[in-house]
Amino acid sequence: MLTWMPELYNRSLMRMTSFTDEEMMSLIDLAAQLKARRAAGIRGDLLHRKNVALIFEKSSTRTRNSSLIAIRDEGGNAEYLTRPDIHFGKKESVKDTARVLGRIYDGILFRGFAQKTVEDLAKYSGVPVWNGLTDDYHPTQILADLLTIRENFGSLENCTVAYVGDGRNNVANSLMMGCAKAGVRYVCCTPKELWPDERVLAEAEEVARRNGVDVRVFDDPVKGVKGANVLYTDVWVSMGEESKTAERIKLLRPYQINMDLMRATGNIDGRLLFLHCLPAFHDHETDVTRESGALEVTDEVFESKYSKVFDESENRMHTIKALFVSALCDRSAL
Ligand code: CP
Ligand code: NVA
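That is the input. Now the predicted structure with phosphoric acid mono(formamide)ester docked in place:
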């Protein structure tokens, strides 16, 4: 018997603060239950005849495929729509598109640039809308990250996550708030130029305080990671910022996660994980790194026993499924 909070029915996810702390943990619990259920070979019909529109302005491997299979596993359908496929924002406003798609679909997952777009989709469509990444936030990623940490450590208690890299990108913003809500200590190691936005930081600090933990920002990565149980990084140049590539590589080189930085945690023989939302520049095998080699993480760390990046990426599907099921499945019909 699956359990989750009834308050999650019909709800949208714009950013980590869209759910209470308890609701967020209920979603992670549901994802763990759905994962176990799939491992037992059960493909149910919790989303039977439900239809979800996947509107993508930016590329995606994990979010797109996780969403598609999450809904299919439970008997529903998803339609992948890119800007050139529909009139979105070109011949038709976001508001009108939302009102059209809301009459046709049961929910909409959006990946793109402006946070306002996903908020307008939610405001005008009348159906649940999920943020699959904007320039500002990446909340579905953080649900998977917290699930992965909990799977490895048994709980989220007494845990410190150190994020090393671009401290004010979408993943960093959502990870900071996700940790604060889960009662996980968060340390951001980033150069002054990329410190988190003051407002986003203050909001996370307040939530962290309420949950008995803190949020700290360091520009010295070696000092910052001391005592950390999770080293987390993301690409140095997010989608849409490609013109900043050279300057970012120069700025963030000292923030690469390598074995020396893993050792600087002091936990190399204890509780220590490496996480990355992926895709990652850890080897020579991409167009970007053919010349430069590894960027934000070395191959040695990426391929080490500490790295749980593929569990983390699998967990994208289970957590997105939890979002769809909790928002769309009418439990009275079960
Ligand atoms: N982590 C993540 O969102 O991956 P994709 O860009 O492949 O969806
Ligand atoms: N910060 C990255 C995350 C990719 C999943 C980006 O926005 O490109």
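The chain has two domains: 6-137+315-333, 139-313.
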